[in-house]
Amino acid sequence: MIVELGHYALVLAFALTLVQCVLPLWGALSGDERLMAIAPPASVTTFVLVLISFVVLTIAYLNSDFSVLNVLQNSHSAKPLLYKFTGVWGNHEGSMLLWILILVFFGALVGLFGGNLPKDLKAATLAVQAWVSAGFILFLLATSNPFTRVVNPPLEGADLNPILQDIGLAIHPPLLYVGYVGFSITFSFAVAALILGRTDAAWARWVRPWTLLAWCFLTLGIAMGSYWAYYELGWGGWWFWDPVENASFMPWLAGTALLHSAIVMEKREALKVWTVLLAIFTFSLSLLGTFLVRSGVLTSVHAFATDPARGVFILGLLCFFIGGSLALYAWRAPMLKQGGLFAPISREGGLVLNNLFLTAACAAVLVGTLYPLALDAVTGEKISVGAPFFNLTFGPLMIPLLLAVPFGPILSWKRGDLLAASQRLYAAFGLALLFTLVTFWAWGMEKVLAPLGVGLAVWVMAGAVSEIVTRVKAFEIGPKRAFSRLVGLPGSAWGTATAHFGVGVTVLGIVTASAFQEEHIVTMRPGDTVQLAGYEVTFDGAAPRRGPNYTEEVGHFTIRQAGALVTELDPSKRIYTARQMPTTEAGIHTIGFSQLYLSMGESRGDGAIDVRVYFKPLITLIWIGCVIMSFGAVFSMADRRLRIGAPKPAARRKTAQAAPAE
Amino acid sequence: MIRSLLTSLVLALALLTTQALAVTPDEVLDDPALESRARALSAELRCMVCQNQSIDDSDAPLAKDLRVLVRERLVAGDSDGEVIDYLVSRYGEFVLLKPRFAWHTIFLWAAGPVALLAGLLAITLALRSRSKRNELLTAPSSAKLSAEEEERLKKLLDRDENA
Q1: pLDDT digits (tens, 9 = 90+) for A524-548
Q2: Burial A408-422 (b: 16+ CB within 10 A, else e)
Q3: pTM (2 decimals)?
Q4: Residue to substitute from A205, A265, A370, A521, interface B, most B β-carbons within 10 A
């Protein structure tokens, strides 16, 4: 009975979104306040209804109610409680329901906290958000109903895919979806602006915090997914340029560009038309990602059991939303006023350069991801586009961008002085050069690119630090006054510097982990020892063990450095009983920022076993850098000048005083 | 040759039942220079039954066969190019993770650079038309600013700078 209640709530939510699609928009266009006023309560109620249906599905999972087809196919009574809970979104139907829950949650947030938006803009935005919600709720109800019942339910379920039985499933999809779906709000704002034919100050001020929020979660979601793949898939890779990874990476690239163009729009009223287009692109890429993952056109770790009807339905939604919004853009964008002039060498110019390289990189990834599909469809030729291609095309586009990063925040608005900016970056440049030379000295000429990569990373990090130093004029006004300036710096300045620093940290991790990794592939007998990066890895033996829903063979390894015990590691090979599916659990030991990575392979009889031992220098910096980037977004959101909505004039004056004149 | 094929077949069967690591110790060549070439080549070849994995990363039996094949060709004295050509002739271009530069892949390879150039062009044109419009708009009036207006403008600009 309760399952039917969840289904019913979802249908009701669909009906409500239909109302929210039409009436508030009508009101916004005809100036009828009563119709506009429907939007906020409708958006909140939709959220409550979808939440009810999500909770119902969760209860079905927690109770192992195998009369529900979705639970039967994806759960097992012996599964640990955490995975019963996270298993709700470990499958197509459930994850789509989570996707929709987050979508309507964002709608409800605008409904609840958008009080200081112009009424028509708020109504139009919520109407557009309801269009998207209605499309996806209909998709769920029509092609992938999570509440379908089974007539004669069996006693046991088919269990969750073992790779997904991990804490990663609790974190990665929700973070990623908040990021993906968060961009729906900027999309709805952009389309609403096009419908109303204007972008006012409130519009400009709203776009950036929402983009920041979505971007922050998307960054964390991608980083988490990368780390999960790294420790779970068992061969120590952290990014595979898998089409589905690209599907999340493209909105990230476009979203990063959007974040930067929104700054120009907010501060200088320029690039409005471009920002609107970018907002449309970003969410379109999110939708494209959803299509790629769920339509079955791609095979990947992420692909859910698919059926063609779903693919066609999502393709229809995709065409409707992307085509519709772009057509609206072509028609209405010329009406939007262009503002703010600037010289090519200026802060705005730097941000335009950022957008240029990020969009070009995004285009390269997009074409690389879709080209094999298109070529196959057109000529029937089958080609593969994989990591070597992307490294070759994406990498070169990032180098000039990273070189330019430290200049951006130091240039002044409207008209900048490149020479003056360069002088402020002497220290950063010197430091980068020093690190390059030291790496050359330590590693010799055998790896030419790696020291340059290290230098580039240090350049970006040191550039971020010198931005703060420049802003507080640390060397000109003495430490005491500099400190008070430091405290008084606006959140967005901290945000920029922190996020840029994070980029440098990630780059450093990527360069060192790829270039200086050490690897040993050996067959080890109990008592054997291998030497790697100054560590002695001894294999003590392996033993079988039983888990709640799997059996495993656990190896025991002792790690010593110069004879002294460092740690003991227990990597294992598991077989999940319900699906008879093997997985590897790597043994990982973190030393500073570096990691020792052990992974077991085939058993060779008489206790011998194949072992892969890696030393991955500074590899954790890859993910730490991403976390630092997301902190940057948080600092930027905390900036009081960016408080959601248009600040009241009095509050505005106060902020102007709080940020001292420069 | 036949014996090594047989052993790889046996190994492949063994791999079907248990999961193994990508490169196994028995595959590794004694000559480190050849082995590192083999690894570099393997990273550019696709395991055709896998989900977007190179044969260097994959545990699948087919990937193992291909790794063994690559090493055999290298030991036989093939250059990297010859190994690639041989595999393409046997398995088609699908085996390459980095497609060859040819007519049917020209759009693929050109996408990034073309997007960059198109963007540059668009920005240049936009800046130019913008500055022209600006001249037309501001030229006659800017000459007439009084001292008082200049002062006000400077204040406004300063405030903007700090915002």
Answers
A1: 989 899 998 889 999 998 889 998 8
A2: bbbbebbebeeeebe
A3: 0.88
A4: A521
